[in-house]
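U., I forgot to send this yesterday:
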Amino acid sequence: MTVKSVLRIAGLLCLTALAGCVAGPNYHQPSIPSPPVAYKELPPPNPPNGSWKQAQPSDAQIKGKWWELYNDPELNALEAKIEVSNQTLKAATEQYFEAREEIRIARSNYYPTLSAGPSISRTRESYNQPNTLRGSTNYQYNTFNLQGQVLWEPDLWGEVRRSVEAASANAEASAADLANVALSLHAELATDYFEMRGLDSQQQLLNNTVKADADYLHLTQIRFKGGVVTEVDVAQAETQLETVKAQAIDVGVARAQYEHAIATLTGQPASTFSLVPAPLTLTLPAIPAGVPSELLERRPDIAAAERRADAANAQIGIAISAYYPNIQLGGTGGFESANAGTWIQGPSALWSLGGSAIELLFDAGRRHAITDQARDAYEEQAANYRQSVLNAFQEVEDNLAALRILNNEAETQAVAVQAAQRSLQISTNRYKGGVTTYLEVLTAQTEQLTDQRTQEDITTRQFAASVQLIKALGGGWNRTQLP
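Result:
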C-alpha cells in the first residue's frame, strides 16, 4: 500500500468521524408533573397589616441581591463578604473549575497524539550468536535515532462526542451546584441574622421587664413595711424579678451561637467577630412569588438535576460504542544512523504508516451489563430530577403557607398582647388599692411577658420564613446563567 493510499484512507475516516453515527439515544428532557397554574398557599392580596401582598407587574421577580429587599445596611455588608471570604463557596467554585477542565480533557480525544524524541545507544552483540559472521568486527555499533510518532483513533461511533456531551452537562450541573451553594449560604446568613436580631428584641423586652419588675418589688417592699401586704407578696415579687433576670441571661447563649455562625459564614474567626445588639424593627418586605411554571427555570438544584440526567444519557452512548471496533491510525517517521555525521541526512530517513481495527468478540456479557447499568443510571437521574421538581413546589408552598398563617397569628397575638397589658394595668390598680393580693399581679405579669415574647418570636419566624421562601424561589437565579 502506497503512502498516497494510506492518506486517502485516513482522510476518508476523518470525514466519516465528522459525519458518522453517534452511538446511544439523543437526550430528551425527562417528563415532569405539570406545574399548577398558581400556588395554592398564596396569601390574600391585601392582608390587614400590609406586610404581605402578591407581586405586581413592576416587581414580578426577585433580583440577584435579594437580601437588599430588607433594607438593612448591616445585613447587606455581611452578605457581600460571603462571595469574598466564605471557604465553602470557594470549595464549590473549585469543584466547578474541575468539572470545566473535564470538558477540555474529553475534547482532546478528538485529535491525534504526537510524540517525538531523540535516542542514542551503544550496542554490543554477542560474538557467538548464530547470525554473527566469523571475522566480522561489526558486532559493536552506535545507533543515533530521531523519531516521531502520530496515533489517532477517529471518533467513528461517537464515543468522544458523547464524552464531551457528558462532561459539558456535568460542568453545567456543577455550575448550578455552585449557584445553589451560594444561595444556601446567603439564605443561612440572613436567617441567622434575623434570628439573632429577634433575640436582641427579646433581650430588650426582658431588660425592660426586669426594670418594671424591680419597680413592682420596690412597691411591694414599701407596702410590706407599711403593713399593707404580707411577706408572701414580697417573696412573689422577688421570684418574678429573678426569674425574668435568668431568662434575660439565657437569651445570651443562643445569641452568641448565631453571632459565631455569622462569623464563620463570612470567613472570620468567631473569637474576633461581634455585632452590636439591635432589636428586629425592620418591615417585612413583599416577596414576588411569580407563577409555578417559572420555578423550573429559577431553581439551581432543579437545573443541576436535569443536567445530570443529560450526562447520564450520554453515558449510554459511551457504553454502546464499546460494541463497535476500535480503529486506530498511526504513523512513524524520523532519522536513524550509526554515525552522528550522517544522522540528519536523506538516506537516514525512515517512515511507516498503518492502521488497525480490533473487535472484541467475547466478553461474557460485560458490555451488555455496562450498557444496562448506564440506562439504569439515567433512569435514576431522571427520577432525581422529577423529585427535585416536586420538592421545589413543596418548599414554596410550605413557606407561602407559613407566611400566610404567621401573618394571621401575628394579628391575633397583637390583640392578645394588648389584652395582657390592660389586664396587668387593671391588676396593678387593684393591688395598689388594696383590693387584691400580689398573686393577681404576678399572674398578669407572667401572661404579659409570655404574650410579648411570643409576639417577638412570631416576628422572627416571619422573617425566617420569608428568607426560606426566597431560597425556595431560587433567589433571583435563572437557568440562563449556566455557562
